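We store sequence, tokenised fold; for instance:
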Amino acid sequence: MSSAQSQSIRIVLAGDPGPVRSGVASLLSAIDGVQLLAEASDGEELLTILRTVRPDIVITELSMHCDDGYTAAERIRSELPDVRVVALSADESVEAVKKAVASGACGFLRQAAPKFELELAVRNVMHSGTYLSAGVVKLLMQPPFPDVDQFLTDRQVAVLTRIAQGKSTKEIAHELGLSAKTVDVHRGRLMKRLQIRDTASLTRFAIRKGLIKE
């Protein structure tokens, strides 16, 4: 084995087949010193691969069709503690980040991360053991919204904030990695929980609580 090969960062990528996974695979292949060993379509296939191939890092989508990335991260932490897991998600909410870390991920990346951020994450996780983007760190350091965290979940706050910003159901679904139907369910629950009947009132509530500025 050559010196370059022995020093390469070995990665296994897991995620639903499609443009997200293929895009990340393409970016990884373009990073100097990174070797993409294999790709998996779900958690079970990922664990099967890891029984024969031992990477330095696993990059896994948090939401996969057959077995989500949270479960995969937990199993890797339990069965292969020397393998570092980087979570890949369209949802950058505090809830998603905390759940990923609690499941065993030592890094967190948004699905649309550019090549430079993907490379930064890979190298940081390899050398220092962790990676969170500056945006995620800033989000985690924000104090809880006054009173809101007492009766709304992080996901509900994320949906409420985007409703108040005037975003459509489709836009909210895309940003949070949810279906439009799920966003509508959250909207209905918010209105019921807050005893609010229309979007304008939701917006006024969000402004009062400091979720957005007028």
About this structure: Confidence is low (pLDDT under 50) at residues 1-6. The first strand starts at residue 9 and ends at 14.
